[in-house]
């Protein structure tokens, strides 16, 4: 696994744990708001990064020949 996948999966797991903590244990309001503002977008971002990091079968050879350098 490359660094992007490891980071994405770790952010996904951390955000899931904290969102479940806010739902199950019902801490004070400001903690729930903080978790919602910070970790719900991180959850969505990590799902997007995991999806982007996986190469399709026809793209694998292209990525080896020409790595993505940006726009």
UniProtKB/TrEMBL annotation:
Write out the transmembrane intervals.
Answer: 7-24, 30-53
**Per its UniProt entry, which superkingdom is the organism in?**
Archaea
Record's keyword terms, sorted: Membrane, Transmembrane, Transmembrane helix
* Name of the protein in question: Energy-converting hydrogenase A subunit I EhaI
Its taxonomic placement starts with: Archaea, Methanobacteriati, Methanobacteriota, Methanomada group, Methanobacteria
